[in-house]
Amino acid sequence: MEKRPFTRRQFELSALKCSAALLVSSRRLAAEAVAPDIPTLYRNAVVIDSLCSPFTDPENPGPELVKSIRDSGVTAVNWTVSERDFEGTIRTIAIVQALVDRYPDAFTIVRHQPAIALAKRSGRIGILMGFQYTSFLEDDPARIGMFRNLGVRIMQLTYNNRSIFGDGCLEPGNAGLSNAGHAAVKTMNAIGVALDLSHSGYRTTSDGILASSKPVLISHSGCAAVYEHPRNKPDAILRSLADRGGYFGVYLMPYLVASPTIPTHQHVLDHLVHAINVCGADHVGIGSDGSIQAVKLTPEQKIGWDADIARRKRLGIGAPGEDRYPWVPDLSGPQYMEVIAEGLARRGQPSSVIERVLGANFQRVLGDIWGTT
C-alpha cells in the first residue's frame, strides 16, 4: 500500500495539538507548584482521624472542652470502644451514646458512609465506633453481627498477641490467618464491617488482605522501611493493600523512631511521605492512636501512663519501645491535623494529595466497604 505524504496542513494541525497539550501540561504543573493555602484547604476538607478518641477522658467533658474539640476542624474519628471484656465494651458504647445524647449539636454517630459528609456540612464530629480487642469476639464470633447492629462497623481480628482468628504482631510464630479468621473475614465482608489489620502479624495481615473480597484497613501503623518495628508494616504489605483498594493510616506513636528518641512531627511526615510513595496518594491517611484533646504531661498524667505501660507489660501486650509515652509532643492539641497538612505542603505535596491524606481516602474506602447508601 502506498504511503501518503504528510501534508503541510497535517503538520500544522499536529504542531497545534502538541502546543495545546504542552500548554495544558505546563498550566497543570504550575498550579501544582503553587504552595497550597492550607488554612482554606483545611477548612474545606473532610478531615478524618482513622484511630482517635476526641477526649483523654470521655465520661464528663464540659461545654468548653467540647467546643474546643468541635472547633478542631476534624470531621470524624474512628473511636475504639472495645475493652478486654464484653461488659466493659457495652459500657463504653453506652458512654459514647450518652455523649452524643448530651451534645447532639457537636457529635453524631456514623453508621453509613454518607453520614460523614453530613457531619461535615452540619459542623459536627462523626463518631465511627471501632474495635481493637478481640477476646469477647473469640468467645462468640456471632457477636460480630450483634455489635455491627449496635453501630460498630470497624473491627480488628487480633491485637498484639494470638487470637483464634490469627497471630498478632508480637507473636514470634507469625502463623497467619486461621480457619476461624477466614470465616470471620467472610462474615465481615457479607454484613458490612470493615476489617482492620493494624495490630496483626505480617502473615495475618497479608492473609487478611488476600482473603477479603472488600478493601481492608490498616488504620494506625507505621512504615517498617522507615523504622523497623513489629507494629510497622513492610513495603510488600503496603503495596498489596493498595493494589486491592485498601487504606493505610500513619500513627502518632513512639514506634515511628528508635528509642530513646522522642518522636516529632517530622518523623510522622517521614512515614507519611514514604507511604504515599509506596502505596500511591489514594491509599494513605492519618490514624493518630491518640486524642483530639491536648495531652498535658502533668505528674498525674505520668503516673497514669506509667501504670498503663506496666499493665501492658504484665499482660504481655506491650510492644518494644514502650519506654516512651504514647504521643508526639509537637502534635498534641486540636490543631494537630492542620499542622500535619502544613508539613506535607512543606514537603512538596500538592493540595490534591493533602486533601486525600486528611480524610478523603478514608471516606472513600468506607464507601467501598460499606456502600454509599
Layout of helices and strands:
Blueprint: H1 8-33, H2 38-44, E1 48-49, E2 52-53, H3 63-70, E3 76-80, H4 86-102, E4 107-109, H5 114-122, E5 125-131, H6 135-139, H7 143-149, E6 152-156, H8 179-191, E7 194-196, H9 202-211, E8 217-223, E9 232-233, H10 235-243, E10 247-250, H11 265-279, E11 284-286, E12 290-291, H12 299-315, H13 336-346, H14 351-370
Parallel strand pairs: 1-3, 2-12, 3-5, 4-5, 5-6, 6-7, 8-9, 8-10, 10-11
Give the key terms.
disordered N terminus, 12 strands, 373 residues, four-stranded parallel β-sheet, 14 helices, six-stranded parallel β-sheet, alpha/beta
Silhouette: globular
Query: Roughly what fraction of the amino acids lie in strands?
Result: 5-15%
Largest beta-sheet details: 6 strands, parallel
Mean pLDDT: 92
Helix content: 40-55%
Which consecutive residue ranges, at least 5 long each, have pLDDT under 50? 1-13, 15-32
Number of extended strands: 12
Number of helices, counting only DSSP H or I runs of 4 residues or more: 14
> In angstroms, what separates the terminal alpha carbons?
57 Å
- Estimated radius of gyration: 22 Å
Determine the structural class based on helices, strands and strand pairing: alpha/beta
Secondary-structure element series = HHEEHEHEHEHHEHEHEEHEHEEHHH
